[in-house]
Design brief:
about 170 residues, 7 helices, about 80% helix
Length: about 170
C-alpha cells in the first residue's frame, strides 16, 4: 500500500492546484471549489487501488464533475426546502436541528430516486407523496394502469436494492 499512497501524494501535489482552479471556474466560489477538490482526492483515497492514469487531469475532472453535479443538486434541494419553509407560519417552522434532519432525509430520497427514469419517478412520487390512486395517475400521465403499476413496482424495487446493497 505504500506505493499507492506515494502515487496518490504525487497525483495530489501535481494536480491539486489545477483542479482547484478548474472547480473555482465552474462554481464561482473559492470555498466550495476547495471543498470539492479535497473531496475528489478523498474519493481516490477511499479506493482500494489507484488506477494507472494516462490522463490524470481528465480522470480528476470526471470525478470532480460528478461532485459538482451533486453539489448543485444539493443547493437546489436546499433552496426549494427553505422556500417551502418560508411559507409556513412561524410557530410551525421546525427547529434548525429538525430542518437539518429533514434536509438530510430529502437528500437521501433524492439520491435514491436519481437513477429512475422520469416516468417511473413521477408515477412513484404521485403514488407515495400525493397519495394518488393508480387509476388517477394513469389518467393524469396518459399511460395505462398496468404501466403505472409496473413503474411503481420498479421504483420500489430500485429503492429496495439501493437500501440493501450497502
Amino acid at each position: 500500500m505504500p506505493s499507492y499512497h506515494a502515487n496518490l501524494r504525487t497525483l495530489y501535489s501535481d494536480h491539486h492546484s489545477w483542479l482547484n482552479g478548474w472547480l473555482r471556474s465552474k462554481l464561482g466560489n473559492a470555498a466550495d471549489a476547495a471543498d470539492l477538490a479535497q473531496d475528489t482526492f478523498v474519493r481516490l483515497l477511499n479506493r482500494s487501488e489507484l488506477l494507472e492514469l494516462k490522463a490524470p487531469r481528465a480522470f480528476l475532472r470526471t470525478v470532480a464533475r460528478g461532485l459538482v453535479i451533486d453539489h448543485w443538486r444539493r443547493e437546489e434541494l436546499e433552496r426549494a426546502y427553505l422556500e417551502a419553509l418560508a411559507h409556513l407560519p412561524e410557530h410551525e417552522t421546525p427547529s434548525p436541528e429538525s430542518r437539518e434532519l429533514v434536509f438530510e432525509l430529502l437528500e437521501n430520497i433524492a439520491r435514491m430516486l436519481d437513477g429512475l427514469k422520469p416516468n417511473v419517478r413521477r408515477a412513484f412520487l404521485f403514488a407515495q407523496c400525493e397519495g394518488m390512486p393508480y387509476k388517477q395517475i394513469a389518467e393524469y400521465m396518459g399511460i395505462s394502469l398496468r404501466s403505472v403499476e409496473r413503474h411503481v413496482a420498479d421504483a420500489l424495487y430500485h429503492c429496495y436494492l439501493l437500501k440493501y446493497a450497502t
